[in-house]
């Protein structure tokens, strides 16, 4: 999977996001880090909700031995999430079904 460059990455103030390694990576990629205000996860609500879903649907259930294993599991889960898993926020449809409806 190739990384697609972005101008800005919005994130919260968790230790993994304020680390020197991420700052160095962002500088190398030409990406600005934009931090939400501490204690205000609602400023990044869609991502916070998605992260919670990822953590509770699959990440907490596996002990990975390599980044390739994580990427493979993530790819399978994301396909299921977008194609098979009904989403109550969009009327019980999958994201793929919702996108198809919006395209017409």
UniProtKB/TrEMBL annotation:
Matching InterPro entries: Integrase_cat-core (IPR001584), RNaseH-like_sf (IPR012337), RNaseH_sf (IPR036397)
Alphabetized Gene3D superfamilies for the sequence: Ribonuclease H-like superfamily/Ribonuclease H
Organism lineage string: Bacteria, Pseudomonadati, Pseudomonadota, Betaproteobacteria, Nitrosomonadales
Protein name per UniProt: Putative transposase
A GO term for molecular function: nucleic acid binding
Domain spans labelled Integrase catalytic: 1-103
One GO BP: DNA integration
Pfam families for the chain: rve_3 (PF13683)
Highest taxon above the source species: Bacteria
């Amino acid at each position: 999977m190739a990384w697609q460059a972005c101008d800005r990455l919005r994130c919260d103030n968790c230790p993994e996001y304020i680390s020197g390694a991420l700052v160095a990576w962002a500088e190398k990629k030409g990406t600005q880090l934009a931090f939400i205000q501490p204690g205000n996860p609602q400023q990044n609500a869609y991502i916070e909700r998605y992260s919670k879903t990822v953590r509770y649907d699959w990440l907490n259930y596996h002990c990975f031995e390599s980044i390739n294993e994580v990427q493979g599991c993530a790819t399978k889960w994301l396909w299921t999430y977008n194609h098979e898993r009904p989403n109550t926020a969009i009327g019980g449809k999958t994201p793929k079904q919702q996108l198809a409806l919006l395209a017409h």
